[in-house]
From TrEMBL:
Record GO terms (molecular function): ATP binding; ATP hydrolysis activity
Species: Pyrobaculum oguniense (strain DSM 13380 / JCM 10595 / TE7)
GO CC list: cytoplasmic side of plasma membrane; cytosol
GO biological process: negative regulation of cell division
InterPro entries: AAA_dom, P-loop_NTPase, ParA/MinD_ATPase
Positions in coiled-coil regions: none
Residue ranges constituting the AAA domain according to the UniProt record: 1-163
Source organism superkingdom: Archaea
Protein name, entry field: ATPases involved in chromosome partitioning
CDD domains: ParAB_family (cd02042)
Length: 306
């Protein structure tokens, strides 16, 4: 079992989109997948189920766990009771489980009453995680005070970032903060090696040469600061960005076919015949290969938090 959190320095970078598409792609490949919606705005849940699940979600489960730890509840709730099943759009024979999100902000002050609160998410998921090959976490904003709970839960991070100097600077500050939490709160040595950076939302009209420049700039900026991180880059050439020119894979452009709305209407980019354009498919396949390699190579270091 591998737990992978999708994180980013800014909102709108693609955490929710790529949590859902990655969970779907792994399910299509026959993997058992759980998607945990940790975002207090529960956007993955809203996309996948079209509604909030009021009575049974991450908020109610965490509230129960806090009450149990503080001696206010007699028994621990069963996480299985709250799981929803999502059939992958366009590949309905494949499915993954969703742990619906809830407004964790509402129970923040109660969570802080538990000593070792930053390990509560790991504790919550422990009874069910061994049933899965992959646990994918759509993380909350990193400025959210409960964010450190994500760190005890995940072993690996996919860091979504947009190109451009200011976005890369933001990502640096963000990574410094995450690595500091991993190191200081959880005693994780070499936290950098657990991160895969994915460049997303490269300008639609960028030519392959420009994509390469943007990609290199992001790569250089981040790998200079964090020599241990991995970058979703592949030098296997294909027509990723242009009609004619073959180039290396540097990340994702913004495509209508990748949008969450398109996922629902037209199906998963890998599964759907309605997605006619080859480029988003090529980019997603390259990403998935790099993602899988990252997980396999990094898993040997796993078992971060005891
Ligand atoms: N490469 C992309 N191509 C097309 N749409 C994208 C891409 N990346 C993100 N989006 C869209 O941008 C919006 C923000 O992405 P989202 O995953 O919600 O970000 P986050 O969860 O990090 O806030 C969503 O509507 C999503 O579908
Ligand atoms: Mg989101």
């Amino acid at each position: 079992m591998h737990t992978i959190s999708f994180v980013s320095a800014s909102g709108g970078a693609g955490k929710t989109l790529f949590s859902i598409l990655t969970a779907g792609a792994l399910a299509i490949r026959g993997k058992k997948v759980l998607l945990i919606d940790m975002d207090p705005s529960a956007s993955a849940t809203l996309y996948l189920l079209d509604k909030y699940v009021e009575d049974c979600n991450l908020q109610t489960l965490l509230k129960n766990l806090v009450d149990y730890k503080l001696g206010r509840a007699a028994r621990r709730a069963d996480v299985n009771d709250c799981l929803a099943r999502h059939r992958v759009a366009g590949a309905e024979a494949s499915s993954f489980d969703l742990l619906p999100g809830g407004n964790l902000s509402d129970i923040q002050s109660e969570v802080f009453q538990v000593s070792g609160w930053n390990r509560l998410m790991a504790d919550l998921v422990a009874p069910i995680e061994s049933g899965y090959d992959y646990v994918i976490v759509d993380s909350p904003n990193w400025l959210f005070p409960l964010f450190p709970m994500t760190v005890s839960l995940s072993s690996l991070y996919v860091v979504m970032t947009r190109p451009g100097k200011s976005e890369i600077e933001k990502t640096k500050v963000f990574l410094q903060r995450v690595f500091a939490i991993m190191d200081r709160q959880f005693g994780i040595a070499q936290p950098q090696i657990y991160a895969l950076v994915v460049l997303n939302q490269i300008r639609q009209n960028a030519q392959p040469d420009e994509v390469e420049r943007e990609g290199k700039a992001a790569y250089d900026g981040l790998s200079r600061e964090f020599p241990g991180i991995k970058f979703a880059y592949s030098d296997k050439k294909a027509k990723y960005y242009g009609e004619k020119k073959e180039s290396a894979f540097w990340g994702f452009k913004y495509y209508e076919d990748l949008r969450l709305d398109s996922y629902k209407q037209n199906g998963h980019v890998l599964a759907s015949s309605k997605v006619r354009e080859e480029k988003p498919k090529l980019q997603f396949r390259a990403y998935l290969e790099l993602f899988t390699k990252f997980v396999e190579e990094t898993a040997v270091y796993e078992r971060l938090v005891e």
